[in-house]
């Protein structure tokens, strides 16, 4: 039986729409996966030496044990977003003469081989090898790795028990912050105690039964839960959400684009993929912290212009690059309804422009790192408003790939094509070149004025530019309609 | 009202539609029947400018549909669920369509109140998104939405499929009323010969993209159609 399941799995992987996508994207994805694996392996190898360097007086194994709790919580948090039990795949199996217990074991067993589990083991196994090379007792290390495997599997199955509960997610988040906070302010060292606990796992190989038992218990709990639910009306049914209605009448003041604006706001708020996009964009405001703190660059380095364009334009690129694919599910309706194409585009451009302003306002506190930061972000925001908004809309006319709104945004390449990678270039490189040119030829202030000025001037011509963009959309209309209909592309 | 001239559509050299001349006068209820692949949906998609004709043209009320967008204000349609916006509630969807067609909330509500028995208490005030409604209920929403804004041309692709018997009967009444008393040109396609003969004044049979029958509906029509399709 399992042989058939594996055969089907193999088929579904190699015949999946994702894999048969453009060759370029495929290669990028494979490289990315290999890159992740290789860098995690090196992290595993290097971990021992890093710990030795940073904590010269301590046994790296003790230190690692102390940090294991962070790893467990962070791993659970990450999996909350990215890993889901693939229960929907078994729907066609229900009618066939296959035992439900077999199906359940298959689903759960399969998840044991997920990429996440692999990633963890790719860190710990090389770390263990380095330990052995440093004359740690071989038996202890090997059995410790077995314990780690038990913990990884426990995390794997606990994640499904948590099953996307927001409460537990925030609980985990709070406990992570709490543990770190207690540690940071020297109030109470949780890691000290938990570290001892994890170290005992290594020192006392017999205890390896604990994590393994935990893995088995969580597996069994999952099994019991899932087995009782393999019915069409229980867990296999899509969740029906009740409506979160909100009053959007304030959009009326935007005049004739109001209905589209309302639609876009609902689009953003009521769909998983767009919602995560919004949160990710907002979180990106912290991106600046990494760069502003680095002294190597200096406050007027071109790097800061990159940061400025990136921060104020993060929603612009994230959301804008997939216009009009966000509406792909009902694009033929939009095209046959009484909708002037230009109004549709104006509404999108309005929404993106607001996001640029919001991101700029959020970035104002960076003035702490010097007035230059504020000045750069301001002129970058102007540039984004004037040039990049119509530019991204124009690039949108090349979109032909459908987007399913219900799927999460993490690692979701749906709708992406070569064009999506290319558009990043003019959006970021163009203002950078402008800045570098004028900064070194004239001065920092002039360079900023040029960037901002270009933004203002193009903004004045926005109506003309939008007309041009509208024409591009009209020309590509039939291609978009038929492209958006291909569910499997 | 609608004129198609020398209209052809080809996909990779294969002809899927070829209509030399078809005229549909204003206020007619027009039925299109044919087997799978006969070209019904292709014709409707051409009429809505969702696909490009390989040759020829369609003129809707003196507007050539693939060169001007001026047919949109008086033409409405429901082809399939891709005409619905899944993350809206039925009410929001109706109001959105209403705004596109220059109707305010009160106008839309007045229209919806006429369809209460059609909705059968399963559409309005359910606090559900369209994506979570059953296929049949989604269809009801799409069909009623196509009546918003007093359109002069209504295009419905397979409106009877997926509907329960009660709703089918009610829909037939609605379509007849639209054409007979309100002068709306209604274009309907269907696999179900009984429904079409009951509803439509005129029935055109498509076979492999060509018009093979053009019948004024009478008492013998159903028999004639059945004998044609029996082969």
Account of the 3D structure:
- The complex is a heterodimer of chains A (489) and B (231).
- Chain A is mainly alpha-helical.
- In chain A, 70% of the residues lie in helices and 0% in strands.
- Chain A starts with a helix and ends with a helix.
- Chain B is built from eight helices and ten strands.
- In chain B, the strands form two sheets. In chain B, strands 6-7-8-3-9-10 form a six-stranded mixed β-sheet, sandwiched between helices. A four-stranded antiparallel β-sheet of chain B has the order 2-1-4-5, covered by helices on one side.
- The mean pLDDT of chain B is 90.
- The interface between A and B is medium-sized, with 33 and 33 residues.
Approximate strand percentage of chain A: under 5%
Give the H and E element order of chain B. Answer: EEEHEEEHHHHEHEHEEH
Strand order in the largest sheet of chain B: 6-7-8-3-9-10
Q: Ends of chain B: how far apart? A: 33 Å
- Provide the low-confidence segments of chain B as ranges: none
Biggest sheet of chain B, open or closed, and with what strands and sense?
Answer: 6 strands, mixed
Q: How are the SSEs placed, and which strands pair?
A:
The complex is a heterodimer of chains A (489) and B (231).
Chain A: H1 2-14, H2 23-54, H3 60-82, H4 100-111, H5 115-133, H6 138-162, H7 166-184, H8 190-203, H9 209-227, H10 258-270, H11 272-283, H12 287-292, H13 302-312, H14 314-320, H15 331-336, H16 341-363, H17 371-396, H18 418-422, H19 424-441, H20 444-460, H21 462-475, H22 477-485
Helix pairs in contact in A: 2-3, 2-5, 3-6, 3-7, 3-8, 4-9, 5-6, 6-9, 10-11, 10-16, 11-14, 13-17, 13-19, 14-16, 16-17, 16-21, 17-20, 17-21, 19-20
Chain B: E1 2-11, E2 14-24, E3 29-33, H1 40-47, E4 55-60, E5 63-64, E6 75-78, H2 90-100, H3 105-113, H4 116-119, H5 135-145, E7 153-157, H6 165-182, E8 185-190, H7 193-199, E9 202-207, E10 210-216, H8 221-230
Parallel strand pairs in B: 3-8, 3-9, 6-7, 7-8
Antiparallel strand pairs in B: 1-2, 1-4, 4-5, 9-10
């Amino acid at each position: 039986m399992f042989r058939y399941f594996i055969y089907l799995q193999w088929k579904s992987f190699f015949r999946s729409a994702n894999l048969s996508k453009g060759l370029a994207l495929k290669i990028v994805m494979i490289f990315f996966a290999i890159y992740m694996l290789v860098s995690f392996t090196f992290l595993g190898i290097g971990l021992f030496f890093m710990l030795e360097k940073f904590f010269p007086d301590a046994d790296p194994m003790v230190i690692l044990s102390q940090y294991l709790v962070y790893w467990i919580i962070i791993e659970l948090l990450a999996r909350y977003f990215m890993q889901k039990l693939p229960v929907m795949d078994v729907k066609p199996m229900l009618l066939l003469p296959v035992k439900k217990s077999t199906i359940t074991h298959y689903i759960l067993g399969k998840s044991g081989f997920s990429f996440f589990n692999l990633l963890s083991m790719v860190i710990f196994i090389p770390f263990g090898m380095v330990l052995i090379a440093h004359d740690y007792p071989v038996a202890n290390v090997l059995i410790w790795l077995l314990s780690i495997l038990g913990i990884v599997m426990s995390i794997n199955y606990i994640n499904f028990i948590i099953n996307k509960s927001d409460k537990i997610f925030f609980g985990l988040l709070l406990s992570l912050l709490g543990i770190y906070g207690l540690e940071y302010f020297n109030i109470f060292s949780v890691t000290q105690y938990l570290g001892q606990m994890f170290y005992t796992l290594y020192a006392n190989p017999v205890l390896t039964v604990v994590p393994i038992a935990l893995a088995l218990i969580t597996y069994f709990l999952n099994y019991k839960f899932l087995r009782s639910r393999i019915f069409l009306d229980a867990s296999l049914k899509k969740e029906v959400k009740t409506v979160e209605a909100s009053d959007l009448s304030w959009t009326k003041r935007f005049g004739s684009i109001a209905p589209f604006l309302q639609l876009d706001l609902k689009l953003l708020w009521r769909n998983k993929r767009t919602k995560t996009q919004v949160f990710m964009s907002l979180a990106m405001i912290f991106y600046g912290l990494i760069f502003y703190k680095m002294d190597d660059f200096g406050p007027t380095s071109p790097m800061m212009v990159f940061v400025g364009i990136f921060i104020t334009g993060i929603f612009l690129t994230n959301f804008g690059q997939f216009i009009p694919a966000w509406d792909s599910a009902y694009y033929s309706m939009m095209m046959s309804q009484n909708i002037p194409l230009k109004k549709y585009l104006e509404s999108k451009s309005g929404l993106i422009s607001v996001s640029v302003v919001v991101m700029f306002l959020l970035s104002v506190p960076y003035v702490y790192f010097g007035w230059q930061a504020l000045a750069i972000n301001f002129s970058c925001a102007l540039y984004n408003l004037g040039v990049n908004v119509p530019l991204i809309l124009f690039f949108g006319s090349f979109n032909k790939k459908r987007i399913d709104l219900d799927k999460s945004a993490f690692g979701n390449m749906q709708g992406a094509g070569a064009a999506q990678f290319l558009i990043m270039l003019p959006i970021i490189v163009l203002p950078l070149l402008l800045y570098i040119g004028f900064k070194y030829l004239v001065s920092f202030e002039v360079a900023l004025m040029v960037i901002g000025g270009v933004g203002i001037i193009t903004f004045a011509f926005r109506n003309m530019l939008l007309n041009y963009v509208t024409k591009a959309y009209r020309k590509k209309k039939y291609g978009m309609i038929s492209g958006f209909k291909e569910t499997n592309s | 009202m609608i004129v198609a001239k020398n209209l052809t559509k080809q996909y990779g050299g294969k002809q899927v539609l070829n209509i030399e001349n078809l005229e549909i006068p204003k206020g007619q209820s027009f039925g299109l029947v044919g087997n799978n692949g006969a070209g019904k949906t292709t014709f409707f998609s051409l009429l809505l400018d969702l696909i490009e004709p390989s040759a020829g043209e369609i003129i809707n009320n003196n507007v050539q549909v693939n060169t001007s967008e001026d047919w949109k204000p008086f033409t409405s349609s429901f082809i399939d669920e891709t005409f619905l916006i899944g993350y809206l509630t039925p009410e929001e969807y109706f109001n959105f369509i209403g705004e596109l067609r220059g109707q305010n909330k009160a106008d839309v509500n007045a229209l919806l109140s006429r369809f209460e028995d059609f909705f059968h208490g399963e559409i309005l005030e359910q606090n559900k998104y369209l994506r979570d409604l059953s296929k049949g209920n989604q269809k009801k929403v799409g069909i009623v939405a196509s009546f918003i804004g007093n359109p002069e041309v209504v295009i419905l692709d397979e409106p009877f499929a997926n509907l329960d018997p009660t709703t089918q009967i009610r829909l037939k009444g609605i379509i007849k009323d639209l054409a007979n008393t309100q002068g709306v040109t209604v274009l309907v396609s269907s696999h179900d010969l009984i429904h079409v003969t009951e509803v439509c004044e005129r029935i055109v049979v498509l076979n492999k993209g060509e018009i093979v029958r053009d019948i004024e509906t009478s008492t013998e029509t159903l028999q004639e159609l059945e004998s044609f399709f029996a082969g």
